[in-house]
Amino acid sequence: MDVTRIDLLGVPVDVVKPEDLENVLFELNTQAGTKQIVFLSVWGLLRARRNDTFMQCLKGAALVLPVSKSLIRGAAFLKKPVPVRYNQFSTIISLLGSLETRYKSLYLLGGRKRTLMESERNLRTTFPGIQIVGRYVGYFPKTVEKDLVSAIYKSNPTMLLISEGVKNGECWAYERRNQFASSFVVYYKDALAIFSSRKKRVSQATFDRGHEIWNEILQNPIKVFLIFPYLWYILLLVCWRLFKK
Length: 245
Fold this sequence. Notes:
By secondary structure, this protein is of the alpha/beta class.
């Protein structure tokens, strides 16, 4: 496969060109078992360094795709192969388009009932070739989880898309990876909110400039304090370059 996995501050990140992504995914689809795709931000990288479960999730993922410009700059600073940065929403749309052309199936998990229903309706309109084989709301009680996981396994979707309302989304999927047959599993918290038009996606121009954090700060001013973990990330890069063999 046209994928190179690099080590960035001890955390795995994959280098894969956008034009190769579809072929890589459907080559993976021929392999047995669950294939998890993880979108990794700089905050996710820092989380993995202190959370062993998330680190193992990344190490076991089929693809770890960077979404933060800081990760791209960090790889270049450490003289590693430089990965391509992926826009989460655009990548999800591309994946859904690939599913449609192959008449594959999808399971939706997350969101409140109305958000989920509106998302499903809009997806059926936009991607009529995709078979939506199931859906379940987020924020579900622990008591229904066994039946939910069983339902996902029996429906055996090509892709399980997890959104808001599933606590520790990536790790939730990782810890149940042996119970999802041979599906792709992707977590994107805002997916259903955007599909249902309840939330605006970040424009491509804003994403290309790497300014999406400002949108988040406007929505939640307390995120201005992310400057401190970001400075820690910069310090780690400098130390890694100076002292790590």
